[in-house]
Design brief:
Methane Monooxygenase Hydroxylase, Chain G, domain 1, mainly alpha, 3 domains, globular, two-stranded antiparallel sheet, 15 helices, 355 residues
Length: 355
């Protein structure tokens, strides 16, 4: 956010590099005006009930404050509070339609019981279907938005060329789209928490990445962002498998299983992979539970990659960074992904599908 090359004039007249967060001459904050703008932006977002917008403005303000200042401490505490509220699903903007809707619409179950008729059943189904369709439309809009970025589209086409040359255009396109959905899962989580980042950029023959301009403030927030990619990847694999069962087109089965395997690979709890970020919020007992689930999953799945996940998880069990208070949701998400993706990656694929 701060341009390290530009020069900024402090109120005392000193010429300072823009990345300097406090004037050595007078002790003032050189970016005081911008800080006021960001606080006002956060207030407006708060008035609209937009937690993500509020968190985004305050994260930008943190970058302009010295890390050891009282202001930084106060704003960071508010960012962490907002992150916890977002993570818990406490969202005024999501709840607004229910508040403004007629009383009968806010309590469909009570209406159904009172009506006791087919009309009540249909009304309930339509009520639920509306939110399902809104959810799908929101995700589809985000996926299309990512493709509007020139760097994403250009590098995606380069990757498609590499995979096309190796395995044909159909399988290559399926793999590229699977990777894209995975990366957009990270983007969705980052946007949800108000964390600035780039659009996905593909690395031909390797995968793709999203560069963060800001970083999660807590281990739990980092875990949500890290596991969002495999979660979206799991959804893509399940949808692809459903298409295969509907069409019986063999290459689609291969895309589904390879996509699941790629997402399972990302769950390795080592280095900067998604699995390592997922483990950061787990207490030591929870890490042992995750290791036990990985070992148990190997029995029905017989997936060799689980051996490496188990080794990585065992190392994490002895790491010193395990928090005292565990993250039950993070544990359930991680082990659920391991089990689901391992079983999906082992689904038999018709022979001679991939050239």
């Amino acid at each position: 956010m701060v341009d390290e090359i530009s020069i900024y004039e402090c109120a005392c007249g000193s010429q300072l590099p823009a990345h300097l967060l406090i004037c050595p001459g007078c002790g003032r904050l050189p970016h005081a005006e911008r800080l006021k703008e960001l606080v006002a932006e956060a207030d407006r977002a708060r008035a609209r009930g937009e937690f993500s917008g509020q968190a985004s403005a305050l994260r930008n303000a943190l970058e302009l404050l010295p890390a050891n200042s009282r202001q930084h401490e106060v704003i960071r505490a508010r960012v962490v509070e907002l992150s916890d509220m977002i993570d818990a699903g406490f969202s005024p903007e999501a709840a607004a339609p229910a508040v403004n809707a007629p009383i009968g619409a806010t309590r469909p179950r009570r209406t159904l019981l009172k009506a006791g008729s087919a009309v009540g059943v249909i009304a309930l189904l339509l009520w639920k279907l509306k939110f399902i369709l809104v959810f799908i439309a929101t995700k589809a809009k985000l996926l299309l938005l990512g493709l509007s970025k020139s760097t994403t589209l250009f590098t995606m086409l380069l990757s498609l060329g590499v995979y096309w040359a190796a395995w044909g255009w159909q399988f290559g396109l399926g793999v590229v789209l699977s990777i894209y959905v995975h990366e957009m899962g990270h983007v969705a989580a980052l946007r949800k928490f108000g964390i600035r980042a780039t659009a996905p950029m593909f690395l031909p023959g390797i995968g793709a990445m999203v560069r963060l301009h800001q970083y999660p403030q807590t281990a739990r927030e980092d875990a949500r962002v890290g596991l969002a990619g495999p979660l979206w990847g799991l959804g893509a694999s399940v949808a692809t498998l459903a298409i295969y069962y509907a069409t019986q087109y063999p290459v689609i089965a291969a895309i589904a299983t390879v996509g699941a395997w790629i997402n399972l690979l990302n769950l390795l709890p080592v280095w900067q992979l998604d699995g390592a970020r997922g483990f950061r919020s787990l207490s030591r007992p929870q890490r042992w539970i995750a290791l036990a689930v990985i070992a148990a999953t190997w029995v029905p799945a017989q997936e060799g990659l689980l051996v490496f996940l188990g080794i990585g998880a065992a190392l994490q069990c002895f790491a010193k960074d395990a928090p005292e208070n565990g993250d039950a949701r993070g544990l359930i998400t991680y082990v659920g992904l391991v089990v689901s993706l391992a079983l999906l990656s082992g689904i038999p694929v018709p022979e001679a599908v991939i050239p």
